[in-house]
Specification:
The chain has about 500 residues and is an alpha+beta fold. It contains 19 helices and 24 strands. One of its GO terms (biological process) is D-xylose metabolic process.
Length: about 500
Amino acid sequence: MGYFIGIDIGTSGTKTVLFDTKGNTIASNTVEYDMYQPEIGWAEQEPEDWWKATCESINNVIRRSGIKAEEIKGIGLSGQMHGAVLLDKEGNVLRSAIIWCDQRSSAECEEITDIIGPKQLIEIAANPALTGFTAPKVMWVKKHQPEIFEKIAHILLPKDYIRYKLTGEFATEVSDASGTLLLNIKERKWSKEIVERLGLDMAWLPEVYESHIVSGKVSKKAAELTGLKEGTPVVGGGGDQAAGAVGNGIVKKGIVSSTIGTSGVVFAYTDKVTIDPKGRVHTFCHAIPNTWHVMGVTQGAGLSLKWFRDNFGFEEKTLGMLTDTDPYVYMDKEAEQAEPGCGGLVYLPYLMGERTPHLDPYAKGVFFGLTAKHRRHEVIRSILEGVVFSLRDCLEIIEDMGIPVEEVRASGGGGRSRLWRQIQADVFKKDIVTINSAEGPALGVAILAGVGTGIYNSVPEACEAIIKRINVQHPDEKVSGVYEKNYRLYTQLYPALKDLYGRD
Protein backbone atom coordinates (compact mmCIF):
# COMPACT_ATOMS: atom_id res chain seq x y z
CA MET A 1 0.00 0.00 0.00
CA GLY A 2 1.17 3.53 -0.72
CA TYR A 3 0.85 6.61 1.47
CA PHE A 4 0.69 10.37 0.93
CA ILE A 5 1.67 13.29 3.11
CA GLY A 6 -0.24 16.56 3.32
CA ILE A 7 1.55 19.52 4.90
CA ASP A 8 -0.41 22.62 5.90
CA ILE A 9 1.66 25.69 6.84
CA GLY A 10 -0.89 27.56 8.93
CA THR A 11 -0.81 30.79 10.88
CA SER A 12 -0.60 29.15 14.30
CA GLY A 13 1.39 26.08 13.33
CA THR A 14 2.38 23.57 10.66
CA LYS A 15 0.35 20.38 10.49
CA THR A 16 1.66 17.26 8.77
CA VAL A 17 -0.71 14.36 8.15
CA LEU A 18 0.03 10.93 6.69
CA PHE A 19 -2.84 9.33 4.71
CA ASP A 20 -3.32 6.03 2.96
CA THR A 21 -4.66 5.97 -0.60
CA LYS A 22 -8.25 5.78 0.71
CA GLY A 23 -7.85 9.04 2.63
CA ASN A 24 -7.64 7.46 6.08
CA THR A 25 -5.47 9.35 8.56
CA ILE A 26 -2.52 7.22 9.67
CA ALA A 27 -0.62 9.78 11.76
CA SER A 28 -0.76 13.52 12.38
CA ASN A 29 1.39 16.09 14.14
CA THR A 30 1.25 19.86 14.58
CA VAL A 31 4.14 22.10 15.61
CA GLU A 32 3.21 25.64 16.65
CA TYR A 33 5.07 28.94 16.27
CA ASP A 34 4.51 32.62 16.99
CA MET A 35 3.06 35.52 15.04
CA TYR A 36 4.66 38.90 15.69
CA GLN A 37 2.92 42.28 15.68
CA PRO A 38 5.60 44.99 15.79
CA GLU A 39 2.88 47.64 15.42
CA ILE A 40 -0.92 47.70 15.57
CA GLY A 41 -2.30 46.11 12.41
CA TRP A 42 1.01 44.47 11.46
CA ALA A 43 1.50 40.71 11.32
CA GLU A 44 4.76 38.89 10.60
CA GLN A 45 6.28 35.43 10.92
CA GLU A 46 9.72 33.93 10.45
CA PRO A 47 9.93 31.56 7.44
CA GLU A 48 12.62 29.58 9.25
CA ASP A 49 10.03 28.82 11.97
CA TRP A 50 7.81 27.27 9.29
CA TRP A 51 10.69 25.15 8.00
CA LYS A 52 11.74 23.95 11.46
CA ALA A 53 8.11 23.05 12.22
CA THR A 54 7.83 21.22 8.89
CA CYS A 55 10.95 19.15 9.54
CA GLU A 56 9.88 18.32 13.09
CA SER A 57 6.31 17.40 12.18
CA ILE A 58 7.34 15.20 9.23
CA ASN A 59 9.86 13.35 11.42
CA ASN A 60 7.24 12.88 14.13
CA VAL A 61 4.64 11.55 11.70
CA ILE A 62 7.01 9.07 10.08
CA ARG A 63 8.26 7.85 13.47
CA ARG A 64 4.79 7.50 14.99
CA SER A 65 3.32 5.75 11.96
CA GLY A 66 6.05 3.13 11.78
CA ILE A 67 6.03 3.12 7.99
CA LYS A 68 9.11 3.33 5.79
CA ALA A 69 9.91 6.56 3.98
CA GLU A 70 9.95 4.79 0.60
CA GLU A 71 6.27 3.90 1.09
CA ILE A 72 5.38 7.61 0.86
CA LYS A 73 4.50 8.11 -2.80
CA GLY A 74 3.89 11.85 -2.87
CA ILE A 75 3.64 15.08 -0.89
CA GLY A 76 1.17 17.94 -1.16
CA LEU A 77 1.69 21.42 0.26
CA SER A 78 -0.95 23.80 1.56
CA GLY A 79 -0.58 27.01 3.51
CA GLN A 80 -1.75 30.41 4.59
CA MET A 81 -2.22 32.56 1.51
CA HIS A 82 -0.99 36.04 0.53
CA GLY A 83 2.23 36.17 2.56
CA ALA A 84 5.33 37.83 1.11
CA VAL A 85 8.51 35.79 1.51
CA LEU A 86 11.41 37.74 -0.04
CA LEU A 87 14.67 36.00 -0.91
CA ASP A 88 17.99 37.23 -2.28
CA LYS A 89 19.86 35.60 -5.18
CA GLU A 90 21.42 33.04 -2.81
CA GLY A 91 17.98 32.03 -1.56
CA ASN A 92 18.36 33.68 1.83
CA VAL A 93 15.36 35.29 3.53
CA LEU A 94 15.69 39.09 3.42
CA ARG A 95 13.17 39.96 6.15
CA SER A 96 10.38 38.49 8.22
CA ALA A 97 7.44 37.39 6.10
CA ILE A 98 4.55 39.86 6.05
CA ILE A 99 1.54 37.54 6.34
CA TRP A 100 -2.07 37.52 5.18
CA CYS A 101 -3.70 39.45 8.03
CA ASP A 102 -1.22 42.36 7.98
CA GLN A 103 -2.99 45.68 7.36
CA ARG A 104 -0.12 48.15 6.85
CA SER A 105 -0.36 48.49 3.06
CA SER A 106 -3.57 50.50 2.54
CA ALA A 107 -1.65 53.36 0.88
CA GLU A 108 0.03 50.87 -1.45
CA CYS A 109 -3.38 49.46 -2.37
CA GLU A 110 -4.45 52.92 -3.46
CA GLU A 111 -1.21 53.30 -5.39
CA ILE A 112 -1.69 50.00 -7.20
CA THR A 113 -5.28 50.93 -8.06
CA ASP A 114 -4.12 54.25 -9.49
CA ILE A 115 -1.31 52.65 -11.53
CA ILE A 116 -3.34 49.78 -13.01
CA GLY A 117 -6.81 51.30 -12.90
CA PRO A 118 -9.69 49.82 -10.87
CA LYS A 119 -11.53 48.31 -13.84
CA GLN A 120 -8.37 46.88 -15.39
CA LEU A 121 -7.35 45.39 -12.06
CA ILE A 122 -10.69 43.58 -11.74
CA GLU A 123 -10.49 42.51 -15.39
CA ILE A 124 -7.05 40.93 -15.01
CA ALA A 125 -6.71 39.90 -11.36
CA ALA A 126 -10.48 39.52 -10.72
CA ASN A 127 -10.06 41.37 -7.41
CA PRO A 128 -9.44 44.88 -6.12
CA ALA A 129 -6.18 45.75 -4.37
CA LEU A 130 -6.52 44.69 -0.74
CA THR A 131 -4.07 44.88 2.15
CA GLY A 132 -4.24 41.11 2.57
CA PHE A 133 -2.75 40.41 -0.86
CA THR A 134 0.93 39.88 -1.64
CA ALA A 135 1.54 42.67 -4.16
CA PRO A 136 0.72 45.54 -1.75
CA LYS A 137 3.10 44.03 0.80
CA VAL A 138 5.94 43.98 -1.73
CA MET A 139 5.12 47.56 -2.72
CA TRP A 140 5.28 48.54 0.97
CA VAL A 141 8.79 47.10 1.17
CA LYS A 142 9.69 48.95 -2.03
CA LYS A 143 8.62 52.25 -0.47
CA HIS A 144 9.70 51.81 3.15
CA GLN A 145 12.62 49.39 2.97
CA PRO A 146 14.37 50.12 -0.36
CA GLU A 147 17.61 48.57 0.89
CA ILE A 148 15.76 45.24 1.13
CA PHE A 149 13.76 45.70 -2.06
CA GLU A 150 16.88 46.16 -4.18
CA LYS A 151 18.16 42.74 -3.05
CA ILE A 152 15.01 40.81 -4.03
CA ALA A 153 15.62 37.90 -6.40
CA HIS A 154 12.61 35.71 -5.52
CA ILE A 155 9.09 36.34 -4.18
CA LEU A 156 7.45 33.26 -2.68
CA LEU A 157 4.25 32.44 -0.84
CA PRO A 158 4.56 30.64 2.53
CA LYS A 159 3.94 27.10 1.31
CA ASP A 160 6.19 27.72 -1.69
CA TYR A 161 9.06 28.65 0.59
CA ILE A 162 8.65 25.19 2.13
CA ARG A 163 8.62 23.72 -1.38
CA TYR A 164 11.91 25.52 -2.05
CA LYS A 165 13.41 24.13 1.16
CA LEU A 166 12.16 20.62 0.32
CA THR A 167 13.09 20.52 -3.36
CA GLY A 168 15.28 23.50 -4.25
CA GLU A 169 12.65 24.56 -6.82
CA PHE A 170 11.09 28.01 -7.10
CA ALA A 171 7.49 27.12 -7.96
CA THR A 172 3.88 27.85 -7.07
CA GLU A 173 0.45 26.84 -8.34
CA VAL A 174 -2.62 28.63 -9.59
CA SER A 175 -4.84 28.70 -6.48
CA ASP A 176 -2.26 30.31 -4.17
CA ALA A 177 -0.85 32.55 -6.91
CA SER A 178 -4.38 33.93 -7.38
CA GLY A 179 -4.05 35.70 -4.03
CA THR A 180 -0.99 37.72 -4.98
CA LEU A 181 -2.85 40.24 -7.21
CA LEU A 182 -0.18 39.45 -9.83
CA LEU A 183 -1.94 36.57 -11.63
CA ASN A 184 -4.16 36.79 -14.69
CA ILE A 185 -7.06 34.79 -13.26
CA LYS A 186 -8.70 33.95 -16.58
CA GLU A 187 -5.45 32.84 -18.25
CA ARG A 188 -4.01 31.19 -15.10
CA LYS A 189 -0.56 32.74 -15.54
CA TRP A 190 1.38 35.75 -14.23
CA SER A 191 0.22 39.10 -15.59
CA LYS A 192 3.22 40.72 -17.23
CA GLU A 193 1.24 43.95 -17.47
CA ILE A 194 0.60 44.23 -13.72
CA VAL A 195 4.07 43.04 -12.69
CA GLU A 196 5.99 45.43 -14.92
CA ARG A 197 3.74 48.45 -14.35
CA LEU A 198 4.30 48.06 -10.60
CA GLY A 199 8.05 48.14 -11.13
CA LEU A 200 8.55 44.49 -10.22
CA ASP A 201 10.47 41.86 -12.19
CA MET A 202 8.88 38.80 -13.82
CA ALA A 203 12.10 36.90 -13.04
CA TRP A 204 11.32 37.24 -9.31
CA LEU A 205 8.17 35.14 -9.65
CA PRO A 206 8.21 31.32 -9.51
CA GLU A 207 6.90 29.05 -12.24
CA VAL A 208 3.13 28.50 -11.99
CA TYR A 209 1.75 24.95 -12.12
CA GLU A 210 -1.72 23.47 -11.98
CA SER A 211 -2.27 22.22 -8.47
CA HIS A 212 -1.92 18.47 -9.05
CA ILE A 213 1.23 18.66 -11.19
CA VAL A 214 4.55 17.46 -9.73
CA SER A 215 6.63 20.60 -9.15
CA GLY A 216 9.79 19.08 -7.70
CA LYS A 217 11.31 16.20 -5.75
CA VAL A 218 12.69 16.00 -2.23
CA SER A 219 16.38 16.90 -2.22
CA LYS A 220 19.13 14.96 -0.46
CA LYS A 221 19.56 17.69 2.17
CA ALA A 222 15.82 17.90 2.87
CA ALA A 223 15.61 14.11 3.09
CA GLU A 224 18.27 14.13 5.80
CA LEU A 225 16.40 16.78 7.79
CA THR A 226 12.88 15.37 7.44
CA GLY A 227 13.30 11.62 7.24
CA LEU A 228 11.68 11.55 3.79
CA LYS A 229 13.16 9.58 0.91
CA GLU A 230 15.22 11.61 -1.56
CA GLY A 231 13.31 11.95 -4.83
CA THR A 232 9.80 11.80 -3.33
CA PRO A 233 7.49 13.83 -5.66
CA VAL A 234 6.03 17.12 -4.41
CA VAL A 235 2.94 18.38 -6.25
CA GLY A 236 1.83 21.98 -6.67
CA GLY A 237 -0.64 21.76 -3.81
CA GLY A 238 -2.95 24.66 -3.00
CA GLY A 239 -3.60 27.75 -0.98
CA ASP A 240 -5.24 26.74 2.28
CA GLN A 241 -8.76 27.60 1.12
CA ALA A 242 -8.63 25.78 -2.22
CA ALA A 243 -6.86 22.84 -0.56
CA GLY A 244 -9.43 22.75 2.23
CA ALA A 245 -12.20 22.85 -0.35
CA VAL A 246 -10.77 19.80 -2.11
CA GLY A 247 -10.52 18.10 1.28
CA ASN A 248 -14.21 18.90 1.81
CA GLY A 249 -15.32 17.78 -1.64
CA ILE A 250 -16.16 21.29 -2.87
CA VAL A 251 -15.48 20.23 -6.43
CA LYS A 252 -18.89 20.60 -8.06
CA LYS A 253 -21.77 23.08 -8.23
CA GLY A 254 -24.12 23.58 -5.31
CA ILE A 255 -21.79 22.45 -2.51
CA VAL A 256 -20.30 25.29 -0.43
CA SER A 257 -17.94 25.18 2.52
CA SER A 258 -17.97 27.34 5.63
CA THR A 259 -14.55 27.21 7.25
CA ILE A 260 -13.72 28.66 10.65
CA GLY A 261 -9.97 28.76 11.14
CA THR A 262 -7.96 31.80 12.17
CA SER A 263 -9.96 33.56 9.47
CA GLY A 264 -13.42 32.55 8.29
CA VAL A 265 -14.18 31.63 4.69
CA VAL A 266 -17.27 30.80 2.67
CA PHE A 267 -16.08 29.00 -0.48
CA ALA A 268 -18.06 28.14 -3.62
CA TYR A 269 -17.03 26.22 -6.76
CA THR A 270 -17.68 27.61 -10.23
CA ASP A 271 -16.81 26.37 -13.70
CA LYS A 272 -16.51 29.90 -15.07
CA VAL A 273 -14.91 33.15 -13.99
CA THR A 274 -17.59 34.86 -11.88
CA ILE A 275 -16.65 38.27 -10.48
CA ASP A 276 -18.39 40.56 -7.99
CA PRO A 277 -18.03 44.00 -9.60
CA LYS A 278 -17.86 45.57 -6.13
CA GLY A 279 -14.91 43.35 -5.20
CA ARG A 280 -16.47 42.23 -1.92
CA VAL A 281 -15.64 38.56 -2.48
CA HIS A 282 -12.61 37.03 -4.17
CA THR A 283 -12.54 35.11 -7.43
CA PHE A 284 -9.51 32.80 -7.65
CA CYS A 285 -8.39 29.79 -9.66
CA HIS A 286 -9.50 26.52 -8.06
CA ALA A 287 -7.12 23.61 -7.53
CA ILE A 288 -8.83 21.77 -10.40
CA PRO A 289 -7.87 22.62 -14.00
CA ASN A 290 -10.24 25.00 -15.82
CA THR A 291 -12.30 25.77 -12.72
CA TRP A 292 -12.44 28.73 -10.35
CA HIS A 293 -13.88 29.55 -6.97
CA VAL A 294 -15.53 32.47 -5.23
CA MET A 295 -14.89 33.07 -1.56
CA GLY A 296 -15.82 35.59 1.06
CA VAL A 297 -13.34 36.12 3.87
CA THR A 298 -13.74 37.47 7.38
CA GLN A 299 -10.41 38.23 9.01
CA GLY A 300 -11.04 37.49 12.68
CA ALA A 301 -13.06 34.27 12.95
CA GLY A 302 -11.22 31.71 15.09
CA LEU A 303 -8.79 34.52 15.85
CA SER A 304 -11.54 36.18 17.90
CA LEU A 305 -12.04 33.12 20.10
CA LYS A 306 -8.27 32.64 20.41
CA TRP A 307 -7.92 36.29 21.45
CA PHE A 308 -10.49 35.72 24.21
CA ARG A 309 -8.82 32.47 25.28
CA ASP A 310 -5.34 33.98 25.42
CA ASN A 311 -6.36 37.13 27.29
CA PHE A 312 -9.29 36.06 29.46
CA GLY A 313 -9.22 32.25 29.43
CA PHE A 314 -6.82 31.49 32.27
CA GLU A 315 -9.27 29.12 33.92
CA GLU A 316 -9.99 27.20 30.72
CA LYS A 317 -6.30 26.92 29.85
CA THR A 318 -5.40 25.73 33.35
CA LEU A 319 -8.24 23.22 33.44
CA GLY A 320 -7.32 22.04 29.97
CA MET A 321 -3.71 21.50 31.00
CA LEU A 322 -4.73 19.55 34.11
CA THR A 323 -7.20 17.32 32.24
CA ASP A 324 -5.36 17.13 28.88
CA THR A 325 -8.39 18.69 27.21
CA ASP A 326 -8.53 21.44 24.61
CA PRO A 327 -9.51 24.70 26.41
CA TYR A 328 -11.98 25.41 23.61
CA VAL A 329 -14.03 22.41 24.79
CA TYR A 330 -14.65 24.18 28.10
CA MET A 331 -15.40 27.46 26.34
CA ASP A 332 -17.96 25.61 24.21
CA LYS A 333 -19.64 24.24 27.33
CA GLU A 334 -19.79 27.72 28.82
CA ALA A 335 -21.30 29.16 25.64
CA GLU A 336 -23.99 26.46 25.65
CA GLN A 337 -25.27 27.91 28.94
CA ALA A 338 -26.19 31.18 27.23
CA GLU A 339 -29.47 31.66 25.39
CA PRO A 340 -29.27 32.22 21.62
CA GLY A 341 -28.96 35.95 20.94
CA CYS A 342 -27.15 36.53 24.25
CA GLY A 343 -29.74 39.00 25.47
CA GLY A 344 -29.00 41.46 22.66
CA LEU A 345 -25.20 41.32 22.94
CA VAL A 346 -23.72 41.51 19.43
CA TYR A 347 -20.06 41.06 18.53
CA LEU A 348 -18.30 42.48 15.45
CA PRO A 349 -15.22 40.27 14.76
CA TYR A 350 -13.07 42.95 13.13
CA LEU A 351 -9.92 42.48 15.21
CA MET A 352 -7.68 42.65 12.12
CA GLY A 353 -9.78 44.93 9.92
CA GLU A 354 -12.22 43.28 7.53
CA ARG A 355 -12.40 42.00 3.95
CA THR A 356 -15.92 40.78 3.17
CA PRO A 357 -18.04 42.73 2.69
CA HIS A 358 -16.48 45.96 3.92
CA LEU A 359 -12.90 45.98 2.56
CA ASP A 360 -11.78 48.10 5.49
CA PRO A 361 -8.37 47.59 7.13
CA TYR A 362 -9.29 50.14 9.82
CA ALA A 363 -12.37 48.33 11.12
CA LYS A 364 -12.19 47.33 14.79
CA GLY A 365 -13.82 44.68 16.95
CA VAL A 366 -16.89 45.72 18.95
CA PHE A 367 -19.12 44.29 21.68
CA PHE A 368 -22.44 46.12 21.31
CA GLY A 369 -25.27 45.96 23.80
CA LEU A 370 -23.15 44.96 26.80
CA THR A 371 -24.93 45.45 30.13
CA ALA A 372 -24.30 44.66 33.77
CA LYS A 373 -26.61 41.70 33.33
CA HIS A 374 -24.32 39.94 30.88
CA ARG A 375 -22.01 37.23 32.12
CA ARG A 376 -18.95 35.46 30.84
CA HIS A 377 -20.76 32.65 29.02
CA GLU A 378 -22.83 35.17 27.06
CA VAL A 379 -19.73 37.05 25.98
CA ILE A 380 -18.20 33.81 24.70
CA ARG A 381 -21.37 32.84 22.84
CA SER A 382 -21.66 36.32 21.33
CA ILE A 383 -18.22 35.79 19.78
CA LEU A 384 -19.40 32.55 18.17
CA GLU A 385 -22.54 34.25 16.89
CA GLY A 386 -20.75 37.35 15.61
CA VAL A 387 -18.33 35.26 13.60
CA VAL A 388 -21.25 33.41 11.99
CA PHE A 389 -22.97 36.71 11.20
CA SER A 390 -19.83 37.73 9.32
CA LEU A 391 -19.92 34.41 7.42
CA ARG A 392 -23.57 35.04 6.52
CA ASP A 393 -22.46 38.36 4.98
CA CYS A 394 -20.21 36.29 2.70
CA LEU A 395 -22.87 33.69 1.91
CA GLU A 396 -25.48 36.25 0.92
CA ILE A 397 -23.15 37.93 -1.59
CA ILE A 398 -22.29 34.57 -3.18
CA GLU A 399 -25.98 33.73 -3.57
CA ASP A 400 -26.66 37.19 -5.01
CA MET A 401 -24.03 36.43 -7.68
CA GLY A 402 -26.20 33.57 -8.91
CA ILE A 403 -24.04 30.79 -7.48
CA PRO A 404 -26.25 27.98 -6.14
CA VAL A 405 -25.97 26.99 -2.48
CA GLU A 406 -27.60 23.59 -1.97
CA GLU A 407 -25.41 22.26 0.84
CA VAL A 408 -23.03 23.90 3.34
CA ARG A 409 -20.15 21.81 4.70
CA ALA A 410 -18.54 22.94 7.96
CA SER A 411 -14.79 22.68 8.40
CA GLY A 412 -11.80 24.15 10.18
CA GLY A 413 -11.24 24.19 13.92
CA GLY A 414 -14.62 25.84 14.42
CA GLY A 415 -16.25 23.08 12.41
CA ARG A 416 -15.37 20.60 15.16
CA SER A 417 -17.67 22.44 17.57
CA ARG A 418 -21.21 21.07 17.43
CA LEU A 419 -22.48 24.31 18.98
CA TRP A 420 -20.73 26.50 16.40
CA ARG A 421 -22.11 24.28 13.60
CA GLN A 422 -25.63 24.61 15.01
CA ILE A 423 -25.30 28.39 15.19
CA GLN A 424 -24.33 28.31 11.50
CA ALA A 425 -27.40 26.21 10.67
CA ASP A 426 -29.66 28.61 12.57
CA VAL A 427 -28.12 31.82 11.20
CA PHE A 428 -27.79 30.59 7.59
CA LYS A 429 -31.18 28.82 7.76
CA LYS A 430 -29.56 25.89 5.96
CA ASP A 431 -28.49 22.36 6.79
CA ILE A 432 -24.86 22.10 7.95
CA VAL A 433 -23.03 18.95 6.90
CA THR A 434 -19.85 17.36 8.23
CA ILE A 435 -17.80 14.78 6.38
CA ASN A 436 -15.69 11.77 7.35
CA SER A 437 -12.42 13.72 7.65
CA ALA A 438 -11.60 16.87 9.57
CA GLU A 439 -8.13 17.23 8.05
CA GLY A 440 -9.22 19.83 5.48
CA PRO A 441 -6.24 21.35 3.65
CA ALA A 442 -3.87 18.49 4.51
CA LEU A 443 -6.29 15.94 3.04
CA GLY A 444 -6.92 18.20 0.04
CA VAL A 445 -3.26 18.38 -0.94
CA ALA A 446 -2.79 14.67 -0.24
CA ILE A 447 -5.61 14.07 -2.73
CA LEU A 448 -3.81 16.33 -5.21
CA ALA A 449 -0.65 14.27 -4.64
CA GLY A 450 -2.65 11.12 -5.33
CA VAL A 451 -3.83 12.58 -8.64
CA GLY A 452 -0.40 13.92 -9.56
CA THR A 453 1.26 10.56 -9.00
CA GLY A 454 -1.39 8.60 -10.90
CA ILE A 455 -3.34 6.89 -8.11
CA TYR A 456 -6.47 8.75 -9.21
CA ASN A 457 -7.36 10.09 -12.66
CA SER A 458 -8.88 13.37 -11.48
CA VAL A 459 -9.62 15.40 -8.37
CA PRO A 460 -13.42 14.87 -8.56
CA GLU A 461 -12.86 11.11 -8.94
CA ALA A 462 -10.62 11.07 -5.87
CA CYS A 463 -13.08 13.12 -3.81
CA GLU A 464 -15.96 10.82 -4.80
CA ALA A 465 -13.98 7.82 -3.56
CA ILE A 466 -12.64 9.35 -0.34
CA ILE A 467 -15.12 11.91 1.03
CA LYS A 468 -18.43 10.88 2.64
CA ARG A 469 -21.17 12.84 4.45
CA ILE A 470 -21.54 11.68 8.05
CA ASN A 471 -23.70 14.21 9.90
CA VAL A 472 -26.35 16.85 9.19
CA GLN A 473 -27.56 19.57 11.58
CA HIS A 474 -30.84 21.25 10.68
CA PRO A 475 -31.84 24.83 11.48
CA ASP A 476 -34.21 25.48 14.38
CA GLU A 477 -36.89 27.83 13.06
CA LYS A 478 -37.51 29.45 16.46
CA VAL A 479 -33.82 30.12 17.09
CA SER A 480 -33.39 31.37 13.53
CA GLY A 481 -35.96 34.05 14.30
CA VAL A 482 -33.89 35.27 17.26
CA TYR A 483 -30.75 35.36 15.15
CA GLU A 484 -32.50 37.18 12.32
CA LYS A 485 -33.22 40.07 14.68
CA ASN A 486 -29.62 40.20 15.92
CA TYR A 487 -28.21 39.84 12.40
CA ARG A 488 -30.19 42.86 11.22
CA LEU A 489 -28.74 44.84 14.12
CA TYR A 490 -25.28 43.49 13.28
CA THR A 491 -25.54 44.76 9.69
CA GLN A 492 -26.36 48.28 10.94
CA LEU A 493 -23.38 48.57 13.29
CA TYR A 494 -20.50 48.81 10.80
CA PRO A 495 -22.09 51.67 8.77
CA ALA A 496 -22.83 53.49 12.03
CA LEU A 497 -19.26 53.11 13.32
CA LYS A 498 -17.25 53.34 10.11
CA ASP A 499 -16.35 57.01 10.42
CA LEU A 500 -15.37 56.58 14.08
CA TYR A 501 -12.69 53.93 13.48
CA GLY A 502 -10.07 56.43 12.39
CA ARG A 503 -7.68 56.25 9.46
CA ASP A 504 -4.22 56.52 11.04
